[in-house]
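One such shown below:

_____
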Amino acid sequence: MLYPTQDCNLKCWYCYESHKQGTKMSEAVIEPVLNYVNKVLSDDKYEAIHVGFFGGEPLMNFSSIAYPLAKGIKKICESKAKAFSTFFVTNASLMTESIIEKMKELNPYFQITIDGYREKHDNVRVWKNSGKGTYEQIIKAIHVLSQRLPNHDVSDDPLITLRINYDNSTLKNLDSLIEDIEDLDKTKVRIHLERVWQTRALVDVEQRTLLINAFKKLFNKGFTITHGVFKRKSISCPSDSNSFLIINYDGTIHKCNGRTLDEDTQEGIINQAGEIRWTNEREEKRLKLVTFNNSNCLRCKMLPVCMGPCSQKYLEEGGFSDSICCMHSIDIPINTYLGYEFEMRYLLENQE
């Protein structure tokens, strides 16, 4: 995963990132990144590379940083007969016709976030320089991307994961958002519902009912839906994989994109030759960690689709605790959750 910048054009109240204005990846970092990729893909054990772009907002300075960087990595992949794909975690407010044309070359997936219906979204997801909302731009970008770009066969994931962030007021007025997206190609767009983490303690009976109703409404429109962290996977989180790392705009190395990248989360640095110098003992501990090796996880029926809390939380807590249990990622009873999960998987397997 690459951070072209830690800056962002928007100002969302719940964002955990401490945005660093004006930061951007320089040629002095881009060259080592390409050297690193070349070294990694020289190893026959790797058949593919999946490059995530995050931030900050990765579409800032897209044409001068993310695009040439992705093109350079793609060229290396082609020279070594390796598969290549990209993943952009973006607010999509900067998505232009020019960027969309360039995206066609990058075999991309997207996670795009929206904060509910227009009025709600435009009170949360606002431009830093003007305070104006971004709902219209983002809805348009999702439509154009789904019309112009294809799904591809690198993964089972669709072209776009549309993440709806919600709090206690969002789900009460979801109908107008559904009207604005119901014409999307359902084979290219999946909905992910995610509660704003600062409001997790506010879940009540009404909120559970509203969430179930949201599932029903979206499902009836033909959308597949995900919620929570439970899915088929071999590890709890990408940060638990030895082959995953984050290279920040300044060349520092990190493992978790769920935290602000700073001195406290730094695990190492990349040198000019593209070699990773690990400087933090956390990485050594992470390599030895089995995230589900505790009595709570081992007796839990959800373990095969959970694999325990991610290594970052485990290390921060000094072991397992109830506060980091993945069961807290869903707002509804587990039997209800599993019923909808079964319906979603059935729909996916039989989707034309």
